[in-house]
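User: Before I run my own analysis I want an independent prediction to cross-check against. Here's the chain; please return only the structure tokens and, at the end, one sentence I can use as a sanity check.
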Amino acid sequence: MKEIAKYRAVYKEEEKYGKEERQMKKKVMIVDDEFPIQITIREIFEPEGFEVVTAGSGRECLEELEKGFKGVILMDIMMPQMDGWDTIRAIVDRGFIEGNIIAMLTAKDVPDQKMEGLQEYVIDYISKLFDPEELVATVEEYFSCLNLNSKE
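Assistant: Structure tokens:
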């Protein structure tokens, strides 16, 4: 019986360590209604060691946040039903902004009028005509910001 108790204690410790490891992994959520964009960005980030979550709509994004997602959110602006700006407003209103950094990933050349009042919640505005290496480096910088904020 002592051996079983010892095994359980070791297993629980390994399980706990494994959970900490998963929590430390850098997470990126891609919120875009275009499936090919989701796949492309997943293929860019996963080989770099990121955990990638995809959401095809603002509502799916909110569902992931309700499940506890923390990390970098790459948000498309133009989506049906709930666009990127409405999604950010809901994120802020529901208190999901803490522990997350939002960057707009869009085909638009310039920010639109709906950005009014939400600028402080968006760290960057990235064109969908991005360089993959530059995008990864930029997101790495965002995680540096997240780590600095969590230590304050």
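Sanity check: DSSP finds five helices and five strands in the chain.
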